Amino acid sequence: MKSIKIFLFIIFACILASCTRVYVPYTLQLQEEYNLTDEEVRQLQFYISDEVMLEREIVDVDKRVSKEHRLKKIEDKLVDQIVFRPYTPGVALELMPNMLSVAFEEQGYLKFKSEGEPEEYFYFKSDRYGDTIKEKVLNYCSWFQLIEDEIFSNGLVTYNVNEYWVFFPETRPHLLVDEESLEKIKEQRRIVKGIKQKK
Hints:
Blueprint: H1 2-19, E1 23-25, H2 28-33, H3 38-43, E2 46-48, E3 52-58, E4 70-74, E5 77-84, E6 89-96, E7 99-103, E8 110-113, E9 123-124, E10 128-129, H4 131-139, H5 148-153, E11 155-159, E12 162-167, E13 175-178, H6 179-188
Antiparallel strand pairs: 1-13, 2-6, 2-13, 3-5, 3-12, 4-5, 6-7, 7-8, 8-9, 10-11, 11-12
């Protein structure tokens, strides 16, 4: 009886392992390794690595606020809050050198940028920064790296025509790709062998 339980546990563990998704960071090196075209990048299943929260204050209740967004009352202010949980799936819309625009819902997209190094991750970065952040950059530009995370987590971003403040509860989010979707791209490719002349 005990050996049957162990056997069933091993089978269950194998099934579970085969269903587990493998996520890898999306980099320029990975793009080159798989020789991905723009069209193939658009076919990949992307994910966001860490939580991102966007917030904006609403003066009048806007009926255009979608059902997916949360409306919160904070200190007599109405706040539109959009939360992207870790591993939220998305698709690439626009591709530019060292930048991807990825949509995680029908309206709006987030921009992910790489510094151009082959192994550098594509990080989510704010479009621009508020006045207090600009002041910090001007006063401490030699220590820019030390406050880099704070700068990127306190910036502003335009999302679905509205301007939002960006908050990262944890670390700076980057793009992940499902390894299975990379393998599917490889499987779809067909190598043409050519035709030789008959002698």
